[in-house]
Structures are given as structure tokens and as C-alpha cells.
Design a protein that fits this description.
By secondary structure, the chain is mainly alpha-helical. Helices cover 66% and strands 0% of the residues.
């Protein structure tokens, strides 16, 4: 990317958290890169993560459908953290901290979720399908309480 070009993933991280933007940007880029690799392994073969991905150049050269993955992940993260509040602990805290037992297997199998941050990539309607409306509402409340406990 040129110096005048705005890196949309970096910008997303900065909107969510000025204090932890670098950590969040790295995590978003790693997650998007891994998602693309699961769908199109050839697209990530021989890519230098440090030079191509961290700089944003890798994402800028992707075909539109694969750029859509990056857009969806960024939009999901913005909506999620707007709803529950951002804390860098989301990046490392295991799902069991807030997710009920019945949600753990589907989230880890279908969405490759391991930490609370990974929930940012799950559409809210999917929580309702997995946990029912009451269970999904309870999850959101649990996430909000988790955020409040960190402030």
C-alpha cells in the first residue's frame, strides 16, 4: 500500500481501540488471512506474512469475493465491540468465560472460535439459531458483564 492509501483493516482496529489498535490489527489480519487460507489455500501459499499481510498489500490484491471476507470480518468486529465494549482481553480469553456449554462445540467447529474475540465474526442471528433467543440474549449480557468487569 502506498503511504496515501488507508489500510481498512488498520482503520477498523483504530476505530475500535486507539490504545490497542496494533494488537487488534495484527489479530484481524491473522484471522482474515487464515480464513482466506481455509477457503483458497493457494492464495496464501508463498505469502510473506510480515511483508505482505501486515503492510496490507496482500488484501489489496485479492479478488473482490475474497476481499469480501476481510470486509465482513471488519464489519463484524465493529458491530460486536460497539455492542459489548472493547478490551484487549477478548483476544486471549477462552470461550468458556462467557459462552454456555451448548454453544462451545458449534462455535469451535463451525466458526473455528477459540477466544471471545472470535465471536466478533459470528452474525448475531447465528447465536439465536445455536442458543435460542433467550440463550443468545443471555450470551450478550454475559459479554457485557465481562467487559464491565475489566474496566
Amino acid at each position: 500500500m502506498t503511504s496515501e492509501t488507508i489500510d481498512p483493516i488498520r482503520h477498523t482496529a483504530e476505530i475500535i481501540s486507539k490504545d490497542s489498535a496494533e494488537q487488534l490489527e495484527l489479530r484481524l489480519k491473522q484471522d482474515i488471512f487464515n480464513s482466506i487460507g481455509r477457503i483458497k489455500p493457494a492464495m496464501i501459499a508463498n505469502v510473506n506474512f510480515q511483508e505482505d499481510v501486515i503492510s496490507g498489500d496482500f488484501f489489496a490484491t485479492l479478488p473482490a469475493p475474497l476481499q469480501g471476507i476481510a470486509i465482513a470480518r471488519c464489519e463484524g468486529a465493529l458491530a460486536f465491540y460497539n455492542r459489548v465494549g472493547w478490551h484487549k482481553q477478548y483476544l486471549d480469553t477462552e470461550l468458556t468465560a462467557c459462552v454456555p456449554e451448548e454453544g462451545l462445540e458449534p462455535l469451535s467447529a463451525r466458526y473455528h472460535a477459540k477466544t471471545l474475540h472470535d465471536l466478533a465474526y459470528v452474525h448475531p442471528k447465528h447465536f439465536e439459531k445455536m442458543l435460542g433467543k433467550t440463550g443468545a440474549a443471555a450470551l450478550w449480557e454475559s459479554l457485557k458483564r465481562f467487559s464491565q468487569s475489566l474496566t
